[in-house]
Each structure stands twice: as structure tokens, then as C-alpha cells.
Amino acid sequence: MLNVKVKELLNDQVNKEMYSAYLYLDFSGFMGDKGLGGFAAWYKKQAEEEMEHAFKIYDYIHANGEKVELLAIAKPSIALNDELQVLKEGLKHEQYVTGLINNIYAVAMNEKDYRTMQFMDWFIKEQCEEEENAEELISKFEKYGKDPAALFELDKSLGKRD
Ligand code: FEO
């Protein structure tokens, strides 16, 4: 059995991770329309990863004898204007998710829910990686985005993400 406050936050986080998948699918479609198939594939992979995050939390809730309430997934609401703006929105979103994860950890700590704290360790580390990846995409695009040959190579390398 989980602490009520912790359970509610974890339940919400399942929804937030699924929203992240939606958001990155939207980014993927935008990049594909811009002729950047590699960026599109990268974001589609990212969307899959977000679903894995959602399932991880879903499974944890069930493993603790609780039920998950599946909430409506919001339509991605960010207006997508150009490639660099999309990349920056990705970083902003990950920083927002880091805040959510940290909050779950903080509430779990406050409630002396050591099991959930340990479970959330993985997500704390993951968020460091998520922000780093988003920052790297921005700096690479700022460096190579204006040179068609360099952008072609960058796009090709992003398309190889597995
Ligand atoms: Fe589920 Fe991108 O963090």
C-alpha cells in the first residue's frame, strides 16, 4: 500500500509521461514536415521512451497493490514555429518534468516512503540525461543548422538513435 499523497502524484506522473510522448510525437511530425527525417526519428524514439517511463510507474503502482486511474491525455498545446524553437521547448519540457520528479521524491521523503524514494532514484538520474540530451540537440543545431551539408550529416546521425 502506498501513501495517499505519493500514490496521487505517481498516478499523475503516469499521465504526464504519456503527455510527454504525445508532445514528442508532435515534435517528430513537425521535424518530418521540415524534411528532417533524422530529427523526426529521434523524437519518435523519445516518445517511445516516455511511454516506457509511464509503464515503469504504472507497474510500480500495481506492484504496491494499488490501481492506476487513467486520466485524459491533453492535446499538445505548444505552438511549433521553427526547428530551434522546438528543440528549446524540448529542454523546457524536460526541466518541467525534472521539477515533477523532484517533487515526488520530496513528498516521498516527507512521508518516510523509503521504497518510493528508492524507486524514484532511477527517474532522478534519467532526468539528468534527458536535460543533457535536449541541451546537446540545441547546441548541435546552433552550430550546424545553418550549413546544409553539416545539417544533413547531423540529421543522418540522429536518425540512427536506437
Ligand atoms: Fe520521462 Fe523525458 O522524461
Helix content: over 70%
Characterize the overall form: elongated
- Beta strands, count: 0
Q: What is the gyration radius calculated from CA atoms? A: 17 Å
Stretches with pLDDT under 50, minimum 5 residues: none
CATH class: Mainly Alpha
Structural domains: how many = 1
Overall residue-averaged pLDDT value: 97
What's the architecture in CATH terms? Up-down Bundle
SSE ordering: HHHHH
Report the end-to-end length measured between terminal Cα atoms: 36 Å
What is the CATH third-level topology name?
Answer: Ferritin
Largest sheet geometry: none
Coarse structural class:
mainly alpha
Q: Kindly estimate the percentage of residues that lie in beta strands according to DSSP.
A: under 5%
What is the fourth-level CATH superfamily?
A: Ferritin, core subunit, four-helix bundle
Query: Number of DSSP helices?
Result: 5
Summarize the structure.
The chain has 162 residues and is mostly helical.
Structure commentary:
- With 162 residues, the protein is an all-alpha fold.
- The protein has one domain (4-158): Ferritin (Up-down Bundle).
- It is 78% helix and 0% strand.
- The protein contains five helices and no strands.
- The protein has helices at 4-33, 37-63, 83-110, 114-144, 148-158.
- Helix 1 (4-33) packs antiparallel against helix 2 (37-63) and helix 2 (37-63) runs parallel beside helix 5.
- The radius of gyration is 17 Å and the shape is elongated.
- The mean pLDDT is 97.
- The structure holds MU-OXO-diiron.
- MU-OXO-diiron (FEO) binds at residues 17, 20, 50, 53, 94, 97, 130.
